[in-house]
Amino acid sequence: MTTSLSKIPKVRLFYCSAVQYKSPRLTGDCSCITISGIGSHAFGSWQPSGGDKQFMWIRDALPKFFPFARPILYGYDTQLCNAYSFQRVRDIALTLVNHLRVVVNSSPTKRALVFIAHSLGGIVLKEALVCLSCCPNTRDSELLEAISGAIFFGVPNYGMDTDHLSAQVSGQRVLYLIEQLKEGSWYLKELDHSFSSLSRDKSFFWGYETKKSIIPVRDYADGTWTRKDPRCPRLKLVERQSATRGLWKIPEKRHLAFQIDEDHSSMVK
């Protein structure tokens, strides 16, 4: 279920100071929107695993540095187990676009938009930007212009290892969504091609993981999936080439890619 914008907690949202430097428009007020990944939670995705669940880093650690950013947590249905949804990336992206229109139209002043996107959330954002670029009306052109930049974390631009996800959703229609994210996906290739022309006048930064993730296995007793079984393997889910769109190996583009020494989920916690 998409999170109602009117019920989103009033928290402060962090964005990278490098985006501020590259985009003078951010010297005034801006809206900073987070988009979490697959099987995630709009709020919990940004909290540390285990430990104190009272802490959420974008709310509790960073607001003093960026007091002028209006926070928005965007949530959407990416449940894996027992899922009934058969939406694809474009469906999620079009819903996001509709909510962005509400955000912009409800603001009495012009605000820049900055995004923090993790995993599938980054693919959704890319699709939303492409959709906006294809809209002929003036309002959507202004909305696209208002988007100054984004920080992408572990986004499978060129695909990711989806075998474990496919196993969890076998026989369910949400498998169509998983298939769009696999390595060698034709959909991702076409999306990145369309997106590349949009990145010239905006500031985009790309984070990649450097630790392997624990892959869940099915519990013999009750059939549920668990990450606490000693049988659980570890895999690198999104390769550096995929997460950075290959920018890490281009000398004049390397400053746009950065490493986070965590696994795929923990890199945003």
Provide a quick synopsis of the model.
The protein has 269 residues and is an alpha/beta fold. The chain has 9 helices and 10 strands.
Q: Any idea what the radius of gyration is?
A: 18 Å
Structural class: alpha/beta
Largest sheet: 6 strands, parallel
Output the strand order for the largest sheet.
Answer: 2-1-3-4-5-10
Overall pLDDT: 80
The first-to-last residue Cα distance is 22 Å
Percent range for helical residues?
25-40%
Secondary structure: number of strands = 10
Give the H and E element order.
HEHEHEHHEHHHEEEEEHE
Percentage of β-strand residues: 15-25%
How would you sum up the global shape?
Answer: globular
Low-confidence stretches: 1-28
Figure out the total of helices. Answer: 9
Tell me about this structure.
The protein has 269 residues and is an alpha/beta fold. Helices cover 29% and strands 17% of the residues. The strands form three sheets. It has a six-stranded parallel sheet. The chain has a two-stranded antiparallel sheet with strand order 6-9. Strands 7-8 form a two-stranded antiparallel sheet. β7 and β8 (225-226) form a beta hairpin. α3 (89-105) crosses α4 (120-133) and α4 (120-133) packs across α8 (186-196). The radius of gyration is 18 Å and the shape is globular. Mean pLDDT is 80; it is low at 1-28.
Helix/strand layout:
Elements: H1 17-22, E1 30-35, H2 57-60, E2 69-74, H3 89-105, E3 112-118, H4 120-133, H5 138-146, E4 147-153, H6 163-168, H7 175-180, H8 186-196, E5 203-209, E6 213-214, E7 217-218, E8 225-226, E9 234-235, H9 240-243, E10 257-260
Parallel strand pairs: 1-2, 1-3, 3-4, 4-5, 5-10
Antiparallel strand pairs: 6-9, 7-8
